[in-house]
Amino acid sequence: MGKIIDINFAINKYKYQKPFHITNSISTDTDNVEVCVITDEGFKGYGEVAPSFRVNGETADQILALSKKSKDMIVGEDVKNYRKIFSITSKLISSPGLKAAIEFAVIDVLCNEIGIGVWEFLGGVKNEIETDKTVSIGTTAERVKEAVDIYKKGFKTIKIKVGEDINRDIDDIIEIYKKTKGVNYIIDANMGYTPKEAVRFAKTLYLKGIDVAVFEQPVINYDIDGLKYVRFNSPYPVCADESAKTRYDVMKLIKNEAVDYINIKLMKSGLSDAISIIELCNSANIKLMIGCMSESSIGVNQSVQLACGYGCFVFCDLDSHLMLSEKTYRGNFKQIKNKMFV
Questions:
Q1: Catalytic: which of 161, 228, 245, 268?
Q2: Every domain range in the chain assigned CATH 3.20.20.120
Q3: Alpha carbon distance 327, 191 (integer Å)
Q4: Which residues in the chain are classed under CATH 3.30.390.10?
């Protein structure tokens, strides 16, 4: 197999088709960093960093500043020894997005050399998955229109962002439910509620007859006791997102019986930790979903390959590329409405 001779880094700027509004954050564009690992046999593997300062404290400039260090770390290593490379990239504890992109690019180039898909290398359980699509925070009319559009396009799961105004959130979800009955709902508060607010929110919707498949990250990320309180007092399954960045975070959540679901995002953990989290959750009977930050099609491809390879995710929230204006589609998967095929 080939030895790594270089890693190229490039910033790609993408515009959101419309402002993406979540709790206390509005995004209109994103600067992503494309990573290309090159071997001495001329093969290339691609990954992408979608930096999130809100979640990880990462920026595109910080990623580029680590480019020389990244090269020093793994140039000269043989891609067939990918576990050895993962042990090296594990040192990128403050740059999990960079860790993810490099690790995936290493596996990608290895698979290119041996002539199989990454999803096959990772297990080959499925060759298709379904993604949800997200309704961001907005006016009631905007939210309802966006949800109805998603419903009409055939998506079976709608993710709804909440967390800035609990009373309006409740009212808006009731209105959305009236026009989109029959789909799954993932409600994502992005840390916006207190534990008591989260329980009131969930119980109010439940009494209205609205079934929520997953109640995601209702409280601040460090409040594990609060997350557990919501889990044991909510009629809906509770999922950790911002609280679950590394395998050590997930071990703590499992030990404290704080969640029903973990949302794995490669940009939070890297590929190697994501694999560890999968095994931890499978062992502890914790359900899994997989999400994204602001990845373009080439970045979402990383998570699609992982999701198909392991085939263990109840829900896939891999719609960021559908929100961005990309001149050229570069994902190594086909998308037909809500389905993704490798």
A1: 161
A2: 121-341
A3: 33
A4: 4-115
Q: Mean pLDDT over all residues of the chain?
A: 97
Which member of 71, 99, 265, 268 is catalytic?
A: 265
Tell me what the mean pLDDT of segment 303-332 comes to: 97
Measuring CA to CA, how many Å separate 301 from each of 242, 266, 326, 329, 335?
21, 11, 14, 11, 11
Whole-number Å distance between alpha carbons of 259 and 13:
35
Architecture of domain 121-341: Alpha-Beta Barrel (3.20)
Q: What confidence tens digit (pLDDT) does each residue in 126-135 have? A: 999 999 999 9
Distances (CA, A) of 149 to 141, 173, 238: 12, 15, 27
Q: Cα–Cα distance between 253 and 94 in angstroms, integer?
A: 21
Over the stretch 33-87, which tens digit does the pLDDT of each residue have? Answer: 999 999 999 999 999 999 999 999 999 999 999 999 999 999 999 999 999 999 9
Dist. CA 233–CA 317, nearest whole Å? 25
- Domain 4-115 = CATH 3.40.50.300: no
**228 counts as catalytic:** no
The pTM of the full predicted model, rounded to 2 decimals, is: 0.97
Helix axes 96-114, 67-74, angle to 10 degrees: 50
Sorted by sequence, the CB contacts under 8 Å of residue 125 that are 6+ apart come out as 308, 309, 310, 311, 312
CA distances from 215 to 40, 194, 261, 262 (A): 47, 14, 9, 11
Confidence band of 219 (pLDDT split at 50, 70, 90): very high
pLDDT in tens, 240-290: 999 999 999 999 999 999 999 999 999 999 999 999 999 999 999 999 999
Active site residue 265: yes
